[in-house]
Write a structure and sequence with these properties.
By secondary structure, the protein is mainly alpha-helical. About 45% of the residues lie in helices and about 5% in strands. It has 18 helices and nine strands. The termini are far apart.
Length: about 400
Amino acid sequence: MWWLLVEFHSAEHLWGQDIPTTQASLNPGPKDGDLVIGPAGENLVLFANIASGHRFLGRGGFGAVLGSKGIKAVVVRGGSVRPLPADPQSFEKVCRLATAYIHRNRFTGHLYRNAGTASHVDLCNASGILPIHNFQDGQDARWQHVSGWTMRERFGAKPSTCRPCTIQCGHKGNFSDRQVRQLPEYETVGLLGTNLGIFDPELIAAWNEQCGRLGLDTISCGGVLGYVMEASEIGLMASPLRFGSAEGVSQAIESIACRKGLGDKMAQGMRRLLETYKGRSFAMHVKGLELPAYDPRGAWGQGLAYAVAKRGGCHLSATLFPLEASLGFLKPRTSKAKAHFVRFFESLYAGINALPTCLFTTYAHLLKAPIARLTPKPILAWTMQTFPPSPCV
Protein backbone atom coordinates (compact mmCIF):
# COMPACT_ATOMS: atom_id res chain seq x y z
CA MET A 1 0.00 0.00 0.00
CA TRP A 2 1.26 3.48 -0.90
CA TRP A 3 0.91 6.43 1.42
CA LEU A 4 1.11 10.02 0.25
CA LEU A 5 1.87 12.91 2.56
CA VAL A 6 0.52 16.16 1.18
CA GLU A 7 1.61 19.50 2.63
CA PHE A 8 0.48 23.02 1.71
CA HIS A 9 2.89 25.94 2.03
CA SER A 10 2.50 29.65 1.44
CA ALA A 11 3.76 30.78 -1.99
CA GLU A 12 3.69 34.46 -1.10
CA HIS A 13 7.48 34.75 -1.34
CA LEU A 14 7.45 33.04 -4.76
CA TRP A 15 4.55 34.96 -6.32
CA GLY A 16 5.76 37.24 -9.09
CA GLN A 17 8.99 35.30 -9.70
CA ASP A 18 9.81 33.85 -13.08
CA ILE A 19 10.03 30.10 -13.60
CA PRO A 20 13.82 29.52 -13.27
CA THR A 21 13.98 31.62 -10.10
CA THR A 22 11.04 29.75 -8.62
CA GLN A 23 12.51 26.37 -9.50
CA ALA A 24 15.80 27.29 -7.82
CA SER A 25 13.94 28.53 -4.73
CA LEU A 26 12.19 25.19 -4.35
CA ASN A 27 15.58 23.53 -3.77
CA PRO A 28 14.73 20.33 -5.67
CA GLY A 29 16.68 17.14 -5.04
CA PRO A 30 17.95 14.89 -7.88
CA LYS A 31 14.89 12.63 -7.65
CA ASP A 32 12.31 15.37 -7.10
CA GLY A 33 9.88 16.73 -9.66
CA ASP A 34 7.97 19.98 -9.85
CA LEU A 35 5.30 21.81 -11.79
CA VAL A 36 5.80 25.59 -11.82
CA ILE A 37 4.01 28.56 -13.34
CA GLY A 38 5.44 31.97 -14.18
CA PRO A 39 3.95 35.47 -14.21
CA ALA A 40 1.80 34.55 -17.22
CA GLY A 41 0.01 31.87 -15.21
CA GLU A 42 -0.36 34.16 -12.21
CA ASN A 43 -1.96 36.80 -14.45
CA LEU A 44 -4.30 34.24 -16.06
CA VAL A 45 -2.98 34.58 -19.60
CA LEU A 46 -5.13 32.16 -21.58
CA PHE A 47 -2.09 30.48 -23.15
CA ALA A 48 0.07 30.31 -20.03
CA ASN A 49 1.85 27.00 -19.58
CA ILE A 50 3.39 24.93 -16.78
CA ALA A 51 7.11 24.10 -16.55
CA SER A 52 8.45 20.73 -15.47
CA GLY A 53 12.21 21.03 -15.37
CA HIS A 54 13.15 22.55 -18.72
CA ARG A 55 10.10 21.08 -20.46
CA PHE A 56 6.56 22.44 -20.56
CA LEU A 57 2.91 21.45 -20.50
CA GLY A 58 2.53 23.88 -23.30
CA ARG A 59 -0.94 24.20 -24.75
CA GLY A 60 -4.43 25.03 -23.59
CA GLY A 61 -3.68 27.40 -20.73
CA PHE A 62 -2.84 24.95 -17.93
CA GLY A 63 -0.75 27.65 -16.28
CA ALA A 64 -3.79 29.90 -16.00
CA VAL A 65 -5.69 27.07 -14.29
CA LEU A 66 -3.07 26.84 -11.54
CA GLY A 67 -2.89 30.62 -11.33
CA SER A 68 -6.65 30.87 -10.87
CA LYS A 69 -6.36 28.56 -7.85
CA GLY A 70 -3.48 30.53 -6.36
CA ILE A 71 -1.07 27.62 -6.91
CA LYS A 72 2.49 28.65 -7.82
CA ALA A 73 4.09 25.20 -7.76
CA VAL A 74 3.49 21.54 -7.04
CA VAL A 75 6.55 19.63 -5.81
CA VAL A 76 6.92 15.87 -5.51
CA ARG A 77 9.76 14.58 -3.36
CA GLY A 78 10.86 11.35 -5.02
CA GLY A 79 12.91 8.29 -4.22
CA SER A 80 10.59 6.43 -1.86
CA VAL A 81 8.41 4.66 -4.43
CA ARG A 82 9.49 2.65 -7.44
CA PRO A 83 6.76 1.25 -9.73
CA LEU A 84 7.41 -2.30 -10.87
CA PRO A 85 5.84 -4.04 -13.91
CA ALA A 86 3.68 -7.07 -13.20
CA ASP A 87 5.78 -9.16 -15.60
CA PRO A 88 9.35 -7.76 -15.53
CA GLN A 89 10.75 -10.20 -18.12
CA SER A 90 8.04 -9.50 -20.69
CA PHE A 91 8.28 -5.80 -20.00
CA GLU A 92 12.05 -5.82 -20.57
CA LYS A 93 11.60 -7.77 -23.81
CA VAL A 94 9.09 -5.24 -25.14
CA CYS A 95 11.39 -2.36 -24.13
CA ARG A 96 14.31 -3.88 -26.02
CA LEU A 97 12.15 -4.35 -29.12
CA ALA A 98 10.78 -0.79 -28.92
CA THR A 99 14.30 0.60 -28.49
CA ALA A 100 15.47 -1.29 -31.57
CA TYR A 101 12.63 0.25 -33.60
CA ILE A 102 13.53 3.71 -32.33
CA HIS A 103 17.21 3.32 -33.23
CA ARG A 104 16.64 2.17 -36.80
CA ASN A 105 13.81 4.54 -37.72
CA ARG A 106 14.90 7.55 -39.77
CA PHE A 107 12.84 10.07 -37.80
CA THR A 108 13.58 8.92 -34.26
CA GLY A 109 17.04 7.44 -34.78
CA HIS A 110 18.42 10.03 -37.18
CA LEU A 111 16.49 13.26 -37.82
CA TYR A 112 15.30 13.98 -34.28
CA ARG A 113 18.39 12.61 -32.58
CA ASN A 114 20.81 14.68 -34.65
CA ALA A 115 18.87 17.82 -35.63
CA GLY A 116 15.93 17.85 -33.21
CA THR A 117 12.37 18.60 -34.21
CA ALA A 118 13.68 21.67 -36.06
CA SER A 119 14.60 19.18 -38.79
CA HIS A 120 10.93 19.63 -39.78
CA VAL A 121 11.89 23.03 -41.21
CA ASP A 122 13.50 21.29 -44.19
CA LEU A 123 10.56 18.94 -44.75
CA CYS A 124 7.83 21.52 -44.27
CA ASN A 125 9.42 24.19 -46.44
CA ALA A 126 9.90 21.67 -49.24
CA SER A 127 6.22 20.69 -48.92
CA GLY A 128 4.94 24.27 -48.76
CA ILE A 129 3.46 24.02 -45.26
CA LEU A 130 6.00 26.14 -43.30
CA PRO A 131 4.11 29.20 -41.94
CA ILE A 132 5.46 32.46 -43.38
CA HIS A 133 4.07 35.90 -42.41
CA ASN A 134 1.06 34.62 -40.47
CA PHE A 135 0.49 31.71 -42.87
CA GLN A 136 0.38 33.99 -45.93
CA ASP A 137 2.87 31.64 -47.57
CA GLY A 138 4.31 28.16 -47.01
CA GLN A 139 7.87 28.53 -48.31
CA ASP A 140 10.77 30.94 -48.03
CA ALA A 141 14.26 30.91 -49.55
CA ARG A 142 15.79 31.72 -46.13
CA TRP A 143 14.60 28.50 -44.49
CA GLN A 144 18.10 27.05 -44.13
CA HIS A 145 19.05 29.74 -41.60
CA VAL A 146 16.69 28.14 -39.05
CA SER A 147 17.02 24.48 -40.04
CA GLY A 148 17.81 22.04 -37.25
CA TRP A 149 20.90 20.94 -39.16
CA THR A 150 22.13 24.52 -39.40
CA MET A 151 21.62 25.05 -35.66
CA ARG A 152 23.41 21.78 -34.94
CA GLU A 153 26.51 22.92 -36.79
CA ARG A 154 26.37 26.58 -35.79
CA PHE A 155 25.73 26.13 -32.07
CA GLY A 156 27.33 22.75 -31.37
CA ALA A 157 24.09 21.06 -30.37
CA LYS A 158 24.23 18.37 -27.70
CA PRO A 159 21.38 16.30 -26.17
CA SER A 160 19.26 17.99 -23.49
CA THR A 161 16.27 15.73 -23.15
CA CYS A 162 13.39 14.51 -21.07
CA ARG A 163 14.39 11.92 -18.48
CA PRO A 164 14.68 9.11 -19.44
CA CYS A 165 14.84 9.39 -23.25
CA THR A 166 15.90 7.10 -26.08
CA ILE A 167 15.14 9.44 -28.97
CA GLN A 168 17.04 12.48 -27.58
CA CYS A 169 15.27 15.07 -29.73
CA GLY A 170 15.98 17.98 -27.36
CA HIS A 171 19.30 19.84 -27.69
CA LYS A 172 21.30 22.56 -25.96
CA GLY A 173 23.91 24.72 -27.63
CA ASN A 174 26.46 27.49 -27.24
CA PHE A 175 25.53 30.92 -28.58
CA SER A 176 27.90 33.85 -28.88
CA ASP A 177 27.33 35.06 -25.31
CA ARG A 178 25.79 32.15 -23.42
CA GLN A 179 24.77 28.50 -23.38
CA VAL A 180 21.15 27.83 -24.29
CA ARG A 181 19.71 24.91 -22.35
CA GLN A 182 17.07 24.25 -24.98
CA LEU A 183 17.53 25.12 -28.65
CA PRO A 184 14.21 26.14 -30.23
CA GLU A 185 11.96 23.26 -31.21
CA TYR A 186 10.23 23.24 -34.58
CA GLU A 187 6.95 24.76 -33.36
CA THR A 188 8.85 27.66 -31.80
CA VAL A 189 10.97 28.15 -34.93
CA GLY A 190 7.81 28.11 -37.03
CA LEU A 191 5.59 30.40 -34.93
CA LEU A 192 8.08 32.75 -33.25
CA GLY A 193 10.36 32.71 -36.29
CA THR A 194 9.26 32.16 -39.87
CA ASN A 195 5.65 33.03 -39.09
CA LEU A 196 6.87 36.49 -38.05
CA GLY A 197 9.28 36.77 -40.98
CA ILE A 198 12.28 36.21 -38.67
CA PHE A 199 15.08 33.86 -39.77
CA ASP A 200 17.68 34.61 -37.10
CA PRO A 201 17.97 31.59 -34.76
CA GLU A 202 19.55 33.66 -31.98
CA LEU A 203 16.55 36.01 -31.91
CA ILE A 204 14.15 33.06 -31.92
CA ALA A 205 16.12 31.40 -29.11
CA ALA A 206 16.02 34.60 -27.05
CA TRP A 207 12.24 34.85 -27.41
CA ASN A 208 11.93 31.15 -26.67
CA GLU A 209 13.86 31.63 -23.43
CA GLN A 210 11.77 34.68 -22.57
CA CYS A 211 8.54 32.72 -23.02
CA GLY A 212 10.05 29.91 -20.94
CA ARG A 213 10.90 32.29 -18.09
CA LEU A 214 7.47 33.92 -18.11
CA GLY A 215 5.48 30.72 -18.71
CA LEU A 216 4.00 31.32 -22.18
CA ASP A 217 3.14 28.77 -24.85
CA THR A 218 5.37 29.67 -27.80
CA ILE A 219 2.84 28.37 -30.36
CA SER A 220 -0.06 30.53 -29.25
CA CYS A 221 2.23 33.45 -28.46
CA GLY A 222 3.70 33.34 -31.97
CA GLY A 223 0.26 32.93 -33.49
CA VAL A 224 -1.09 35.98 -31.67
CA LEU A 225 1.97 38.04 -32.60
CA GLY A 226 1.52 37.03 -36.25
CA TYR A 227 -2.12 38.10 -36.18
CA VAL A 228 -1.20 41.45 -34.60
CA MET A 229 1.52 42.05 -37.18
CA GLU A 230 -0.88 41.49 -40.06
CA ALA A 231 -3.64 43.54 -38.43
CA SER A 232 -1.18 46.36 -37.79
CA GLU A 233 0.13 46.35 -41.35
CA ILE A 234 -3.36 46.71 -42.81
CA GLY A 235 -4.44 49.34 -40.29
CA LEU A 236 -6.83 47.40 -38.06
CA MET A 237 -4.81 48.19 -34.94
CA ALA A 238 -1.91 50.40 -33.89
CA SER A 239 1.29 48.66 -32.85
CA PRO A 240 4.99 48.76 -33.85
CA LEU A 241 4.98 45.06 -34.73
CA ARG A 242 5.81 44.32 -38.37
CA PHE A 243 6.78 41.20 -40.30
CA GLY A 244 10.52 40.71 -40.61
CA SER A 245 11.34 43.15 -37.79
CA ALA A 246 12.39 42.32 -34.25
CA GLU A 247 11.32 45.75 -33.02
CA GLY A 248 8.83 45.51 -30.19
CA VAL A 249 8.60 41.69 -30.08
CA SER A 250 10.37 41.19 -26.75
CA GLN A 251 8.38 44.04 -25.23
CA ALA A 252 5.15 42.52 -26.57
CA ILE A 253 5.95 39.15 -24.99
CA GLU A 254 6.61 40.85 -21.66
CA SER A 255 3.40 42.89 -21.90
CA ILE A 256 1.37 39.74 -22.59
CA ALA A 257 2.69 37.98 -19.49
CA CYS A 258 2.15 41.08 -17.33
CA ARG A 259 -1.22 41.97 -18.92
CA LYS A 260 -0.16 45.55 -19.71
CA GLY A 261 -1.37 47.79 -22.54
CA LEU A 262 -2.12 45.93 -25.78
CA GLY A 263 -0.60 42.86 -24.12
CA ASP A 264 -3.67 42.63 -21.88
CA LYS A 265 -5.85 42.05 -24.95
CA MET A 266 -3.30 39.77 -26.62
CA ALA A 267 -3.25 37.66 -23.44
CA GLN A 268 -6.87 36.72 -24.18
CA GLY A 269 -5.84 34.88 -27.34
CA MET A 270 -6.69 35.31 -30.99
CA ARG A 271 -10.40 34.54 -30.86
CA ARG A 272 -11.05 37.31 -28.34
CA LEU A 273 -8.85 39.74 -30.24
CA LEU A 274 -11.22 39.27 -33.17
CA GLU A 275 -14.11 40.65 -31.12
CA THR A 276 -12.32 44.02 -30.98
CA TYR A 277 -10.17 44.22 -34.10
CA LYS A 278 -11.88 41.91 -36.64
CA GLY A 279 -9.74 40.28 -39.34
CA ARG A 280 -11.30 36.84 -39.18
CA SER A 281 -9.89 35.87 -42.58
CA PHE A 282 -6.33 35.86 -41.24
CA ALA A 283 -6.96 34.71 -37.65
CA MET A 284 -5.24 31.32 -37.67
CA HIS A 285 -7.05 29.37 -34.97
CA VAL A 286 -9.56 26.55 -34.54
CA LYS A 287 -12.00 26.75 -31.61
CA GLY A 288 -9.85 29.51 -30.10
CA LEU A 289 -6.59 27.50 -30.10
CA GLU A 290 -3.93 29.02 -32.33
CA LEU A 291 -2.59 26.75 -35.10
CA PRO A 292 0.74 24.94 -34.82
CA ALA A 293 3.36 25.33 -37.54
CA TYR A 294 1.79 23.20 -40.29
CA ASP A 295 -0.25 25.01 -42.94
CA PRO A 296 -3.38 22.88 -43.52
CA ARG A 297 -3.74 24.17 -47.08
CA GLY A 298 -0.83 21.92 -48.01
CA ALA A 299 -2.00 18.96 -45.90
CA TRP A 300 -5.78 18.63 -45.96
CA GLY A 301 -5.85 15.70 -43.56
CA GLN A 302 -4.00 17.77 -41.00
CA GLY A 303 -6.59 20.49 -41.51
CA LEU A 304 -9.35 17.98 -40.79
CA ALA A 305 -7.49 16.87 -37.67
CA TYR A 306 -7.40 20.49 -36.48
CA ALA A 307 -11.13 20.86 -37.16
CA VAL A 308 -12.25 17.82 -35.18
CA ALA A 309 -9.70 17.89 -32.34
CA LYS A 310 -11.52 18.47 -29.05
CA ARG A 311 -9.28 21.36 -28.05
CA GLY A 312 -9.12 22.91 -31.51
CA GLY A 313 -5.95 23.70 -33.47
CA CYS A 314 -3.87 20.82 -32.15
CA HIS A 315 -1.40 18.67 -34.12
CA LEU A 316 -1.10 16.10 -31.33
CA SER A 317 -4.67 14.82 -31.49
CA ALA A 318 -3.95 13.29 -34.90
CA THR A 319 -0.80 13.97 -36.91
CA LEU A 320 -1.25 13.45 -40.64
CA PHE A 321 1.15 15.96 -42.16
CA PRO A 322 4.12 13.49 -42.28
CA LEU A 323 2.02 11.04 -44.30
CA GLU A 324 0.85 13.81 -46.62
CA ALA A 325 3.80 16.16 -46.93
CA SER A 326 6.91 14.14 -46.12
CA LEU A 327 6.51 10.40 -46.66
CA GLY A 328 4.25 10.28 -49.70
CA PHE A 329 1.69 7.88 -48.25
CA LEU A 330 -1.26 10.21 -48.89
CA LYS A 331 -1.90 12.87 -51.49
CA PRO A 332 -1.82 16.13 -49.54
CA ARG A 333 -4.50 18.10 -51.39
CA THR A 334 -7.40 15.68 -51.47
CA SER A 335 -10.09 14.69 -48.99
CA LYS A 336 -10.09 11.04 -49.98
CA ALA A 337 -9.48 8.70 -47.02
CA LYS A 338 -8.52 11.55 -44.70
CA ALA A 339 -11.43 11.03 -42.28
CA HIS A 340 -10.37 7.40 -41.91
CA PHE A 341 -6.78 8.31 -41.12
CA VAL A 342 -7.75 11.04 -38.66
CA ARG A 343 -9.92 8.53 -36.83
CA PHE A 344 -7.11 5.96 -36.80
CA PHE A 345 -4.47 8.37 -35.47
CA GLU A 346 -6.78 9.77 -32.79
CA SER A 347 -7.23 6.22 -31.49
CA LEU A 348 -3.53 5.41 -31.82
CA TYR A 349 -2.45 8.55 -29.97
CA ALA A 350 -4.96 7.91 -27.20
CA GLY A 351 -3.31 4.51 -26.69
CA ILE A 352 0.24 5.89 -26.75
CA ASN A 353 -0.64 8.67 -24.30
CA ALA A 354 -2.23 6.12 -21.98
CA LEU A 355 0.95 4.02 -21.69
CA PRO A 356 2.42 6.73 -21.05
CA THR A 357 5.27 7.23 -23.49
CA CYS A 358 6.45 9.90 -25.91
CA LEU A 359 4.25 10.51 -28.94
CA PHE A 360 7.36 10.59 -31.12
CA THR A 361 7.61 6.82 -30.69
CA THR A 362 4.68 6.71 -33.12
CA TYR A 363 7.13 6.96 -36.01
CA ALA A 364 9.23 4.10 -34.72
CA HIS A 365 6.38 1.72 -33.91
CA LEU A 366 4.20 2.46 -36.92
CA LEU A 367 7.02 2.65 -39.46
CA LYS A 368 9.05 -0.33 -38.31
CA ALA A 369 11.39 -0.39 -41.30
CA PRO A 370 13.79 2.40 -42.31
CA ILE A 371 11.96 5.14 -44.21
CA ALA A 372 14.01 4.59 -47.36
CA ARG A 373 12.64 1.04 -47.71
CA LEU A 374 8.99 1.85 -47.06
CA THR A 375 6.19 2.04 -49.58
CA PRO A 376 2.63 3.18 -48.85
CA LYS A 377 1.27 -0.38 -48.96
CA PRO A 378 2.25 -1.77 -45.51
CA ILE A 379 0.68 1.02 -43.48
CA LEU A 380 -2.40 1.21 -45.69
CA ALA A 381 -2.97 -2.54 -45.45
CA TRP A 382 -2.54 -2.55 -41.68
CA THR A 383 -4.82 0.41 -41.02
CA MET A 384 -7.56 -0.88 -43.31
CA GLN A 385 -7.56 -4.16 -41.36
CA THR A 386 -7.60 -2.33 -38.05
CA PHE A 387 -10.59 -0.12 -38.86
CA PRO A 388 -13.29 -0.47 -41.52
CA PRO A 389 -13.23 2.15 -44.29
CA SER A 390 -14.97 5.41 -43.55
CA PRO A 391 -17.76 6.60 -45.88
CA CYS A 392 -15.47 9.07 -47.67
CA VAL A 393 -12.91 6.45 -48.78
